[in-house]
Specification:
- The chain is mostly helical.
- The protein has a single domain, classed as ABC transporter involved in vitamin B12 uptake, BtuC (Orthogonal Bundle), CATH 1.10.3470.
- Helices cover 71% and strands 0% of the residues.
- It is built from 13 helices and no strands.
- Helix 12 crosses helix 13.
- The longest helix is centred in the first third of the chain and has 36 residues.
- It starts with 10 loop residues before the first helix and ends in a 6-residue tail after the last helix.
């Protein structure tokens, strides 16, 4: 994927550039093989974008697996709890108020989106609580209601956006254009903090599928597990949305595709879904930036156009139902 684009190059040259920039290895004078412009394009433009796509794809797919298992709802995706709508409201307000790059430079928009997402999940979680417990049905309904409410606020804000309307719409469509190493640094800590507890508790998530009472009898601290998983998912999704905007499909269908291929065991399903989500979004982002060059198609559009038909084909071929 690093060799594809308006400035194509050989795989060998890309490998040598990475060896030089990352490992400090130089096998010959670089100017004999490629220009300094090509080196900048590979290392400062395409490589961070590829890493971002992989991290976001893995984060959304993993979050989708967790939420579909936690809520026992095949339609659950990383945005079902209103996280994306809260992030969208934060980003939209940043654009409308003219602080999109004034507070923290190019990181202001991701920061505002992240704050919006965190506030949203905090509200949803507290609305859903019944005493010391959080029923999953309550959480699902509260998330849907909060998502609808914040989406309405985003639409209302867009009415008053004026000349900023295009910037708002472009962010809402999702994409990785003009992203660099700074954005990788934004998402990487949250990705690691989120993905580690998910992998450490994936066996307990299997037990939770038996029902909360059964899991409790088998030694699972159900409410603690919910808090851990919801917190991990929130961090990953909020960080992803804050950097890329709203990229649909990945967290909904990728888990289903691999559930059909490898089964419902989360010990296997989680890692293969994360890997599949990473590869899928890298490929889709490559297609998004090259299919109509020099124009760039929003990657969220590409994921839906390419992923939807493939999932339908796989579902028909397996003659199976998507369940738990």
């Amino acid at each position: 994927c690093l060799t594809i684009g308006p400035a194509p190059g050989s795989i060998l040259n890309v490998f040598l550039i990475l060896a030089k920039k990352i490992l400090g290895l130089t096998f010959f004078k670089p100017e004999e093989k490629w220009s300094s412009t090509f080196e900048t394009i590979i290392f400062a433009v395409r490589l961070p974008r590829l890493i971002l796509a992989a991290l976001i794809g893995a984060a959304l797919a993993s979050a989708g697996v967790v939420l579909q298992g936690l809520l026992k709802n095949p339609l659950a995706d990383p945005y079902i709890l209103g996280i994306s709508s809260g992030a969208a409201l934060g980003a939209t307000l940043a654009i409308l108020l003219g602080v999109g790059s004034s507070l923290f430079g190019s990181y202001t928009l991701p920061a505002m989106a992240f704050i919006g997402a965190i506030i949203t999940i905090f509200i949803v979680y507290n609305i859903s609580r019944v005493g010391q417990q959080v029923p999953m049905g309550n959480l699902l309904l509260a998330g849907i209601a909060a998502g609808a409410f914040f989406s309405a606020l985003v639409t209302l804000v867009m009415v008053f956006s004026g000349e900023d309307l295009h910037a708002v719409i472009f962010w809402l469509m999702g994409g990785l254009a003009n992203r660099g190493w700074g954005h990788v640094k934004v998402i990487l800590p949250y990705f690691l903090v989120g993905i580690i507890p998910i992998y450490l508790t994936r066996r307990k998530l299997n037990l939770l599928l038996l029902g909360e009472e059964a899991a409790q009898h088998l030694g699972v601290e159900v409410e603690t597990l919910k808090v851990i998983l919801l917190g991990a998912v929130t961090l990953m999704v909020a960080a992803s949305v804050s950097v890329s905007g709203i990229i649909g499909f990945v967290g909904l269908i990728i888990p289903h595709i691999f559930r059909l291929l490898v089964g419902p065991d989360h010990r296997i399903l989680l890692p293969v879904s994360a890997l599949g989500g990473a590869i899928f979004l890298v490929l889709m982002d490559t297609l998004a930036r090259t299919a109509a060059a020099p124009l760039e198609i929003p990657v969220g559009v590409i994921t839906a156009l390419c992923g939807g038909p493939f999932f339908i084909y796989l579902l028909r071929k397996k003659k199976s139902t998507v369940g738990f």
